[in-house]
Amino acid sequence: MPQITKIRIVNFLYNDGKRLIADELYDLRRENGESADVLINLANGGGKSVLVQLIMQPIIPKARVAGRRIESFFTRSTDHCFVALEWALEESKAKLLTGIAMSASDSRSDQDTERGYQIKYYTFLSAYLDNQVDYRIETLPLSQRDNGRFIPAAFDSVRTLAKNSGGRLERYSSEDSTRWRERLSQFGIAQNEWELIEDLNSDEDGLSKFFSKRKTSDAVIDGLIIPRIEGKLSGGASKDDSSLETMLLNYARSFSRQQDMIREREVLSGFRSMLEGMQDQARELWTSYDRMEKSVENLFAYHDALSGETAWQEDKLAGLAAQQDGQQQKIRGIQWERASA
């Protein structure tokens, strides 16, 4: 599966606007550039949940974490931010960029449980090699410095950039959620797997609560795996879908055919045993056949030799008969001479 190698967060305010992530790039790779598994360890209140929620936005826009809506961070009408992820793709040297631009909209929620502005967003995507410069996670013009003052790019800046990219930078509106899901799945990023991560992070102790209700392996299968497989059965899976439930579904289908495979193996094993029992007979038959072929060859050789000898003797006999006729003529001649004398 693809693995996140870099995270970039631009112009994000949190803790009631007291903390700002201006433009930070988090490189999660090893020193040799390979992807690495990463553990982020922060003190309570350090922003772990915030970081997890932001990482999820380019994949599942408006994802909730710890019961908090992403809208709750947008407390001013001018608030907007960018979040981008770079992925290392399986069996490919190319990198994938997925990102989201979020901004406060004109409407604001008046409910205490849903503080903050409603948001509008669009997502964007590009694939590139290491030697390409444009549309990389590091080079996207999402901010600038003016005399030491931080100035974020406008909310529509990436959308405008995508229009002029000739298709190298793709942009998807909030109404294109289905197309966005399908596009991610083409690179092996399954939204439904990330929805599971969202479920596990729905509360501060979401993971503990999840497994406290599922203390046995059967409960985990019933509550986690089977519903996902059923979802695949009802909704269908694309040929390139590499999500966990698709793999499990394919495994289940393969497992269901094992009885036929076992029976076929038993038939083949019995046939093999029968052949092994006939091996000596077959070897003797083969040897006898070789001896018969050799005898036939010898018989034809004798026949040819005898035919040649017979023809030679017949020629010799014809020659002797001719000599005998000659001698008889000589005898008659001598007898005629005697009679004449």
Give the SSE map.
Blueprint: E1 3-14, E2 19-27, H1 48-56, E3 80-88, E4 95-108, E5 117-128, E6 143-146, E7 149-152, H2 157-163, E8 170-173, H3 177-186, H4 191-200, H5 206-212, H6 217-235, H7 244-256, H8 258-277, H9 279-340
Antiparallel strand pairs: 1-2, 1-3, 3-4, 4-5, 5-8, 6-7
Helix pairs in contact: 6-7
Question: Can you characterise this structure?
Answer:
The chain is of the alpha+beta class. It is built from 9 helices and 8 strands. Strand 1 and strand 2 form a beta hairpin. Helix 6 crosses helix 7.
Cα separation of the termini: 132 Å
Radius of gyration: 45 Å
Structural class: alpha+beta
Mean pLDDT: 85
Low-confidence stretches: none
Record the strand order, biggest sheet: 2-1-3-4-5-8
Order of helical and strand elements: EEHEEEEEHEHHHHHHH
Helix content: 40-55%
Largest sheet: 6 strands, antiparallel
Task: Identify the overall geometry.
Answer: elongated
Number of helices: 9
Keywords, separated by commas or semicolons:
341 residues; alpha+beta; six-stranded antiparallel sheet; 9 helices
Compact overview of the structure:
With about 350 residues, the chain is α+β, with helices and mostly antiparallel strands. It contains nine helices and eight strands.
